[in-house]
Amino acid sequence: RTWTLESSGINAEYGQHYYITNNLSIEDGIKNEKMSKSGSKDVAGVELKKLRNKKLTSTEFMQVWFHYDKDKSGYLEYVEFSQFMKDLFLKKDCTDITPEQVEKYTAEVIHLMDTYDENRDGRFEMNELAKALKIEENYLNKIINKKSIKDKHIQSVLKHYDSNCDQMLQGIELKAFVGDLVRSTPDIPYNFAMIEQACNYIQEMSGDSKLSIDSIKLILSLDNRQQLHRKLSEQAK
């Protein structure tokens, strides 16, 4: 298959327009991949290595995913994905990344979907895209694998996911936290439906739609994690 990216869009959050070149095909991505792996640059002088090696936080991933999956279908079409990639990487703080790099990397990732598109439906599901892109190591694994979870560990969890520093996890922050909880259990599928279900269960446990440091401590207790795992396992059947 040859995928050609023909979409354009507005990066409203960062106040800039970026367009994907109409003739950028998967063949371009393959050629650039070979050149970059050999340590050289492509004909446009664009090195993709730093883009391939850039790890995304789970919060960044969720933030852009839920911006584009507005109908909560649980997947992105390829056209939506091209804009997803631009919003993910072309930020004000990513001054070392260019639109040209993102165009080529997008072509590469679409090519990789021949490997990661498990159900061959030509769309990106959350778990498929998480495999194709580099998301940071699951932060919660560092915490829940400890023999004893102390207050300082709970504080570090809040700090990691609390992107607006209001001492609460809510909205996308909460989904990133819950998403990592789901990711920490290999037998539970990492997808939109499971994360939404886990959010509902956690809201029942905490009695609120946002989590304070005390609520995080409650959720991460061994008993409640096991209870959450049982409920999600039943849901996954």
Tell me the series of helices and strands, N- to C-terminal.
EEHHHEHHEHHHHHHH
The largest pleated sheet is described as: 2 strands, antiparallel
Strand order of the largest sheet: 1-2
Number of helices: 12
By helix and strand content, what is the structural category? Answer: mainly alpha
- How far is the first residue's CA from the last residue's CA? 34 Å
Low-confidence stretches: 1-46
Q: What value does the average pLDDT take?
A: 75
Approximate helicity band: 55-70%
> What is the percentage of strand-forming residues?
5-15%
Give the strand tally.
4
Supply database-style keywords.
237 residues, 4 strands, single chain, two-stranded antiparallel ribbon, mainly alpha
Describe the structure.
The chain is built from 12 helices and 4 strands. By secondary structure, the protein is mainly α. Strands 1-2 form a two-stranded antiparallel sheet. The radius of gyration is 19 Å and the shape is globular.
